[in-house]
Write a structure and sequence with these properties.
Structural class of chain A: alpha/beta
Radius of gyration of chain A: 28 Å
Strand content of chain A: 5-15%
Helix content of chain A: 40-55%
Oligomer: homodimer
Number of helices of chain A: 28
Largest interface: A-B, 65 and 65 residues
Shape of chain A: globular
Amino acid sequence: MSCNSLRRNGICLFVAGILAAAPMLAQTPTELNVMPLPAKVQIASGVLPIDRGFTIGFTGFRDERLDRSGQRFLATLHRETGIIFAAAGSQAGVLAPPDAARATLLVTTGRDSKPVQELGEDESYALEVTPAGAKLNAPTALGTLHGLQTFLQLVSITPNGFSVPAISIQDQPRFPWRGLMIDSARHFMPIAVIKRNLDGMEAVKMNVFHWHLSDNQGFRVESHRFPKLTSEGSDGLFYTQEEVREVIAYARDRGIRVVPEFDMPGHSTAWFAGYPELASGSGPYQIERRWGIFDPAMDPTNEKTYKFLNDLIGEMARLFPDQYFHIGGDEVNGKEWSANARVQEFMKAHNIRDNVELQAYFSQRVQELVVKHGKTTIGWDEVLIRGVPKKVVIQSWRGAESLSAAAKQGYSGILSNGYYIDLGWSAARHYTVDPMGGAAANLSDDEKKRILGGESTMWSEFVNAENVDSRIWPRNAAIAERFWSPQGTTDLDSMYRRMQAESVRLEWLGLTHRTYQRQMVQRMTGPASAEETAALMTLVETLEPVKDYTREALATEEPTSQTPLVRVVDAVNPESSTSRRFSANVDQFVAGSCKDAALTASLRTQLTQWARNDGSVEGVAQRSSIVEEAAPASAALSQSAELALGALDRIGQALPVPDELKKQQIDALNAFENQAHKSQLTIPARAAFQKLIEAAGNGGACSGVR
Amino acid sequence: MSCNSLRRNGICLFVAGILAAAPMLAQTPTELNVMPLPAKVQIASGVLPIDRGFTIGFTGFRDERLDRSGQRFLATLHRETGIIFAAAGSQAGVLAPPDAARATLLVTTGRDSKPVQELGEDESYALEVTPAGAKLNAPTALGTLHGLQTFLQLVSITPNGFSVPAISIQDQPRFPWRGLMIDSARHFMPIAVIKRNLDGMEAVKMNVFHWHLSDNQGFRVESHRFPKLTSEGSDGLFYTQEEVREVIAYARDRGIRVVPEFDMPGHSTAWFAGYPELASGSGPYQIERRWGIFDPAMDPTNEKTYKFLNDLIGEMARLFPDQYFHIGGDEVNGKEWSANARVQEFMKAHNIRDNVELQAYFSQRVQELVVKHGKTTIGWDEVLIRGVPKKVVIQSWRGAESLSAAAKQGYSGILSNGYYIDLGWSAARHYTVDPMGGAAANLSDDEKKRILGGESTMWSEFVNAENVDSRIWPRNAAIAERFWSPQGTTDLDSMYRRMQAESVRLEWLGLTHRTYQRQMVQRMTGPASAEETAALMTLVETLEPVKDYTREALATEEPTSQTPLVRVVDAVNPESSTSRRFSANVDQFVAGSCKDAALTASLRTQLTQWARNDGSVEGVAQRSSIVEEAAPASAALSQSAELALGALDRIGQALPVPDELKKQQIDALNAFENQAHKSQLTIPARAAFQKLIEAAGNGGACSGVR
């Protein structure tokens, strides 16, 4: 069925085909909505239209995983375009030889990847798109999986329907270890949450899912050998081994390794609920409900501890096929050790001078068990203590200094410091952190090779299944680009533009990082007028949670694992697009575009909306305890915007602002920001407001604006 | 853990408890956000707070289904409130005797419902809520399921956290057959779609899922006996028998019967793709891709047809346990019969005078097969032909006349005319249709008993998995209320208010009727500025699809099952809340509130937004073929709003409008509406625009406004 045969009255919308395709404007690589940006891109002229005749064919190495990837590719392409492909629903949309040769997208794969995916396998691919068709070539199935994602990102709507620009891409990752850690211990994350995040990881070419499976607040994997780990240590919230295998298979289908973490000897209270004999204290122990660093720690002086760990590590090493096994090792305060006479005696007898050395002894013993069960150990910075074998991989939460010091000593490592996505930083801030930055920049080439990549970490004190996606995405896409794309890929505007486009696509994959917000707002408002709901939406779209660890510090009640995550601070996004756009406009305005009437009007519209917003929030705050808690922040936003609006007026009228008044206004802005903190919220546009006030102070007239 | 022990600085947000609970304002039943409205409601003073100590206990009859309903209840309550109940994740949150007695909500069930749910079982329940606790009593498990839904709807946010008002409810349905039909044949609906709609049905107490499983465009259930029904007749899109059993169990858990429909002797082209010998024509046959009424029909003169149907009905009667078996029977045009000499000969030999009689003969034979396999037949109006046994149930697409005529003849029936939710009517229009309305109002009491209820019908020519929820919900909740609540429940304002509240809750159950819209808009815009996306959202939130069957009539290309459903007409909701609210405001304005400054300002704001909107849409329309198609409608909306804005100005300035100008403007409005039709869209606020123009014409001054 060609366009022409369907063209009954000049409209040929969805089957635009090659005949109707107009040449696209030339694009530079950063204009493509591809994230992470490929290593090498050359854009040609013309487009490959995507119509219902589109097919994908596989030659070279083929197996069921690639067949499934082809089906998944067509399903996503349908989601992107709505096109019902001729062979939809049957297997026929994915062509095998000899039909494969006539596929619109011909995929040639050299060989399978390893049965258990390994660190450092070839993940490269080459993608050639012409108006006549596309070819994807990859040495291994991993490259094929990545290349298919790139193709899907290239699809866009045009005046002639959907198409992919003619393009030539040579691509491979910069780092072999590109991970996301999800903490399923502090808040349990259902399998559906894990799976949709694996879908997201595949889309942005991340290849390691680091699964934090035990902590003080829960032990989350079924153990047949030690059933009380979950019966006493999980509140019934854990993964069966069958579910774990399902996740591992799901990840492998997407080119993702699954590295389990069992954190020890600290962060292990939940183990002790069922097996108190493992602990150094006298117990009894219960699942920890609070957040923080706690005293309970395994008893490193008791041979029974190692007997237990030998059995458990053996069981888990069989369950998780990946070569790497994460033993945690972070944040042991040693108090239980110091308080235990038997432990002290042991230390004396073995000439162990302090708790750091005692942990080193423990790590050494556990590391031997991991090796015994055929695995390679990975642990947080703390496991790197004198004498630890060079094969141990260091995951650095401490930072570039720590990581490069390890590299100098011969240890491989990955960087997580700077990628703590639970801290509420902007995508830009994460994006500018580079695993090869800081001290690592001065490493020798051999030492540099030991920096394997990095991992973003989604610690889950303040996230649950409802809002966790919003804390991971879309910012994690920017981090994924840092790990994949060439080091010189640093343009922030391009990053934000592409991240925004990818954010939409991620939602189509089932992630809920955009839909959660309105749903949370409706819980807190209850039935409300359209105006009230809109005002609450404006509030949550504008504000951000306080950053770093200040949420705990500002809490009026100690937050625990039982605290409902239903508040405005839980609903606001870590990075407000609205505030970011406004701030960018203010920068442009004060940089000299203050006579741009449209820009000025847009600033005025936004400021006016914010200034009036609290009026519509007030009524809901009276009816809802949840909204009431955010009332200080709502008032602070409106009052801050009012000040900025005044400054804008004065600039427009060329009325100068006396220094004293300017100072008062900036003080007031700071006071409003502090007021917002009462609701554990921050006003991200505050700096932009201050710029307007300062610009008004600098003479008031447009020419006086810096 | 009590509120007091947590009260560290006066804030006691989420554990408000009984001590902190303030009495709620008295409410009238229609102010409750319950839908369908219960038969009898008495509101008392005080509230039952919902805090983390909340438990539910079951006494009397208990089984695994009720246990699951309790778990599901707690999961939904968690979704509504965010509260982590003390026993979350374990089974302990659902208490059995002797602990049940101390549950916050004590549920007492008399007996189980029938193993296979039957028409007319007792579905009543009584719910008593006091500030100290709640009791739900039901004679059968069905009443228990319904009562739990009512409780969940009563939960609301207050100044002191979440609570349920003290209340006394006696409730039972008005009709025993309260159904939703989903057409899985024209567009296949994945199991996930079916399940989430069953969740929605449970929430609004519908109890029959009528599953339209075969039609010209597809046969959607695996048959072991006749595998070519799906291998040749489904494009690979069908339900396995295992999946069907899963859906039936899922439905039973929610108090819902599953009635399968296999439409015959017409609407059956898909059967003939694999089994052309069943047909009256010479074939060959292929799955039909177009919409409409087609010639192919089963051969009613061939004994092999009945042999086949005997085997198939037998297989399906075993698969679907419900007592009722739907044989379709609608829209046979008889052309294949008339053209077939052998059929003609048969008719002559058997003294069958016309095709209507021939279909009667066929229906009679099929009906005997259905009875032979232990089932009761249900069919569309057409099956009611002279001599059909009285046990056959009539589903009326023709209307109240047809249905009450059937009742007079002794046939039981259900009404679907008026509940065709695929036609894009407003909720109000469906709501005012009553199964006992029209001719049925004059039936005798005995005849009235034969009106069993009704069914909304979701025909799927223009819906797919992506937007089907939006065509069913929330309007289906209003229809569910019509079938459940007392006949006098007719207040439209109350209905809309409660439907809106229920709409939010339905989304929490996983329905996508609110999230789909933005996602569809983002597909059609591609990466666009925030302003452009907002303008497109305004457009889709304001307009509606053309109604009834005009979409086909207006189509520039014949729509088929291959047509992508990605257009603006697919993204707009059948009923625009924005336009409805605006129209209500205009009614208030012209009814005399034209001096209400806030009201006038709100009209002006909305009209101004609409008037300017096309400016922001234009840019996207140039880049996107999909948006381009809606450009006429976008321009029409802005131009119409411009006229209405002018009228509002004249009213404000007391400037009279000459009759000639008024007439010109109304003509222009009509022209704009026709222009919108080019995009298969309608402007629902058009009538309101006209009212403003007419009001301006009537003297212009406020006092002149009608």
